């Protein structure tokens, strides 16, 4: 049974989500502010977090940043809730490490579908990694342990960034359009746009590239999409 941490200062929303997710046989943990959420992440070790953007004591963006900075929690999938409809809020959420976002008011069925899609992607990644390793220049990937290193130093990536890196590095030199990347990395259950691919690529580059303006690993193919650099 997967454990989900729901974080929102609106008790009605927490209870609504808890009721519906428990009906789907998920185990639920609840928090009503950012500081409490971080404590529960450490003590309860949830499989996924539903995180509101606007929270007392510590907002959702700062909670997300703290989770991604901690090697013990860096792989926790995060769906960010926001009452704001502005595109910039969604993009910022993805840039600080959220795997997905949903805007209030939202459909319970859609949110449950997104939860299942992310957990399924995580399971697929675990099942497909095998005992393989990848090395290119200063980048080293251990697919089995999900360990990524640059020049021997561990890099912290979100689950979506990890799967994106796995996919591109396993298909080194092959160019993929944004829609193709959505299909392969997010799958048929995706609810996000191809703009989100650009955001995740930019965040991935910020973690592994020395110079984001002149990347040596994840390359842009203008007019088409992205690829991992060719073998040399």
What's the short story on this structure?
It is built from eight helices and twelve strands.
Question: Could you please describe the fold and organization of this structure?
Answer:
The protein is of the alpha/beta class. It folds into two domains: about 5-125, Response regulator (Rossmann fold, 3-Layer(aba) Sandwich); about 130-230, Arc Repressor Mutant, subunit A (Orthogonal Bundle). About 45% of the residues lie in helices and about 20% in strands. The protein has eight helices and twelve strands. The strands form three sheets. A five-stranded parallel beta sheet has the order 2-1-3-4-5, with helices on both faces. Strands 6-7-8-9 form a four-stranded antiparallel beta sheet, covered by helices on one side. A three-stranded antiparallel beta sheet has the order 10-12-11.
Characteristics of this structure?
2 domains; single chain; four-stranded antiparallel sheet; Arc Repressor Mutant, subunit A; five-stranded parallel sheet; 12 strands; 232 residues; Rossmann fold; alpha/beta
Topology of helices and strands:
Elements (H helix, E strand, L loop, with lengths): L2 E5 L3 H13 L3 E5 L2 H11 L3 E5 L7 H10 L8 E5 L4 H9 L4 E4 L4 H21 L4 E4 L2 E4 L4 E4 L2 E2 L4 H12 L5 E2 H9 L7 H15 L9 E4 L3 E4 L4
Parallel strand pairs: 1-2, 1-3, 3-4, 4-5
Antiparallel strand pairs: 6-7, 7-8, 8-9, 10-12, 11-12
- Could you state the oligomeric state of the chains shown? single chain
Q: Biggest sheet: strands, sense, closure?
A: 5 strands, parallel
**How many strands appear in the DSSP assignment?**
12
Strand order of the largest sheet: 2-1-3-4-5
Q: CATH superfamily membership of the largest domain, which one? A: Response regulator
Radius of gyration: 17 Å
Which stretches are poorly predicted, pLDDT < 50 over at least 5 residues? Answer: none
- The CATH architecture of the largest domain is 3-Layer(aba) Sandwich
